[in-house]
Amino acid sequence: MEKEKHVLSNQNQEEEEADYNVIGILEMESNWSTLIEKKRKQKPRLLKISAGNSSCCIFRVPQSLVEINEKAYQPHIVSIGPYHHGKEHLEMIQEHKWRFLDSLIGRTESVGVGVNDYFKAIASKEERIRECYSETTEVNSNEFVEMMVLDGCFIIEILCIVGNIVPHDPKDPFFNMSWVFPFLMRDLLRLENQIPFFVLQTLFDLSMTCLDKKVPPLAQLALESLDYVIERPADKVLKRYSNIEPVHLLDLFRLSFILSPQDLNEKNDLCLEMKDSFPKTIPSAMKLHVAGIIIKARKSDSLLDIKFDNGVLEIPLLAIDDSISSFFLNCVAFEQCYSNCSKHITSYVTFMSCLINKPSDVGFLSDQNIMENDLGTDKEVVRFFSNISKDVAFDFQQSYLSKLFENVNEHCRNQWHVRWADFKYTYFNTPWSFISALAATMLLLLTMIQAYFVIYAYVRPPKPPS
C-alpha cells in the first residue's frame, strides 16, 4: 500500500514538473517572441540603412583605417558637426564660436537679417541634413539646428576674415597665435568633422546680404583659405573650381586637385578593353630607374598630374608633411565610404606607395626634386605610404592612372629597354666609368684600324718600284 502511494506521489510530482516546464517554455516563447519582434523593428544606429544613398556623405572612418593612424581622423582643437560635439579637449574653441556668431549676426541685423532667420533657414533643412550623416545623431531638433548654425557661421566668419571680406582684430588669438590657425584649418579637412556644404551655402548667402562690395563664390573663398594648408598656384585652381558643388569642405579641397571637372568621372573606355591580368603594381622608383625609365619632376598645379611617355615618368613635386598626410588619409577614407565620388586620391597614394618601398626610393625622389620630406625620416615616409594603402578596396582598372600602370609595366617587360638601361648604368653611371668605357672603345677602334691595315698590306702588298 505504501509502495503504491509512493508511486502515485512520484507520478503526481512528475506531472506537476511537466506542467511547470510546459508553462515555463510557453512563457519563454512569449518573451522570445516579444524580444525578437522588438529587435526586428530596431533600425541600425551606427551605420544607417540610408548610408548607401548619395545624400549620405559624412561618415565615421572605418576601424581598419583608424587603427593605422587614429590621430589623423580626430579633430585636435575644434569640433564641427555632431560626431565630436561636446568633447572636453575641444571646449576652448567651442566657447569662441559664439563670439564669431555674434560678430556675423551683428552685421546682418542692420539689414533686417537676424538670428531667427538663420535658425529658420536651417530648421527647414533639418531632415535633409540628418540624412547626410551615416550615424544616427541622438540630438534633439533644437540642439541639432543650433549646432549647425553655430558651426556653419563659425566657418563662414573664419573664411571671410582670411579672405579679407570682413575686418578683424589683429590681436585676435585665432590669428595672432601662430599655432591655432594651422590646426584649425587641418581640422576642417577631417572626414568626421564636416557639415554639408549646402548648409554653409545657405548661411553664407544670408550673411552676405549686408555687404555692398562684390563677394567671390563660397567655393572660391574656401579654397583660398584652405590653400594655407597646402601651398600651390591657387589662381589656376580657383578659376577651374569656383562653381563646383561639393558635398562638404573636404570634398571641395579633394576636387580641386583633379585636373578638370570633366575628369571627375574616372571610368574610361580603356578599362573595357583591359585583360583580367591587369597589373596591380609597378616597380619601385629605384627599380624603374635601373630599368631605364627616366623619372623627373613635372611642373603642375595638381599633385595628380602624372604623365608617362616614351620611357619618361613625370611626377609633380610632393611636399609631404603632417597636413598633406592628414589630408590624404581623410580623402582615402571618404573615397572608400562614398560610392558617388571618383577615387583620384586613392589612385594617387596607391601609385606613390608602389614607387616608395625603401628609404632609398625616398632619397632618389628627393634628389630628382619630386619629393620634399617634412614628415620625418625617410623610413617614416615609407611607413606612411605602406600603411595608407593597407586594407583599401581599390579597382586598378577604374583608376585614372590605369593606362599609366599598363604602359610602365609594358616598358619594363621589354628586354631591349632593360638591357640598354643596364648597359648605360654599367658604363655611364659615373664620369670615371664613362672615361674607362670611352678609352676602351677608342683602344678597340684603334686595334681594329691597325688590324685592317695589317691585313690590307698582306692581301695587297705594295708593288715594288719598276
TrEMBL record:
Task: State the taxonomy lineage.
Answer: Eukaryota, Viridiplantae, Streptophyta, Embryophyta, Tracheophyta
**InterPro entries named among the record's database cross-references:** DUF247_pln
Span-the-membrane segments of this chain are 432-459
Q: Which organism is it from?
A: Fagus sylvatica (Beechnut)
This chain's protein is named: Uncharacterized protein
Q: Which key words tag this protein in UniProt?
A: Membrane, Transmembrane, Transmembrane helix
Q: Which domain of life is it from?
A: Eukaryota
Extract the Pfam families matched here: DUF247
